[in-house]
Amino acid sequence: MPEIPRGNRPLSPFMIGPYYRPQWTSMTSILTRITGNALIVGTVLIVWWLLAAATGPGAFATADAVLRSWFGDLVLLGSLWALWYHTLAGIRHLVWSTGRFMEIHQAETFGKIIVGLSFVLTALTVVILWSV
User: Fold this and answer.
1) Environment class of residue 132 by beta-carbon count within 10 Å: exposed (0-12), middle (13-18) or buried (19+)?
2) Can you say whether residue 99 is alpha, beta or left, with left for phi > 0 and alpha for psi between -120 and 50 degrees?
3) Closest alpha carbon to 31 in 84, 102, 82, 100
4) Per the CB 3.0–4.6 Å rule, which of 78, 82, 84, 88 could disulfide with 121?
């Protein structure tokens, strides 16, 4: 195999620091995968709570205590944000499927809008649900 002169370049594009600057498009792509997996955790907790309600008062009391604790509130809030972000990212991919907003500056702006809008919609949902 021929020897390829590499010069002074980094060996991996995944080196964070002076060699590689994370881009919005790559970070939002990674975030979409993370939120998709995080939604599984929230779904499992909700299903556990529903199964416990169907099982009996003792099981329901345990599940309800976990979900109403600070940790349960944190996980459910994170799941709510993940749901909004993942939904908006899916809409972004549908828009990209039409060939729109594919230029780099447009894609980065679109990613920033989606991240910001996901936080706004999460806060709005929490305010609406808390007032009920």
Assistant:
1) exposed
2) left
3) 82
4) 84
Contacts of 66 (CB under 8 A, 6+ apart): 45, 72
Does CATH number 3.90.180.10 belong to domain 24-131?
A: no
Alpha helices in the chain (DSSP H): 24-55, 57-67, 70-97, 104-131
Residue 58 identity:
G
Q: How far apart are CA 122 and CA 93, in angstroms?
A: 20
Give the Cβ contact number of residue 27 at 10 Å: 13
User: Which 3 state secondary structure label does DSSP give 22?
Assistant: coil
Written as six digits, the tokens of 99 are 């060939």
Low-confidence ranges of the chain (pLDDT < 70): 1-2, 4-20
**DSSP helix/strand/coil, 4:** coil
Q: What is the pLDDT of residues 42-58, one digit of tens each?
A: 999 999 999 999 999 99
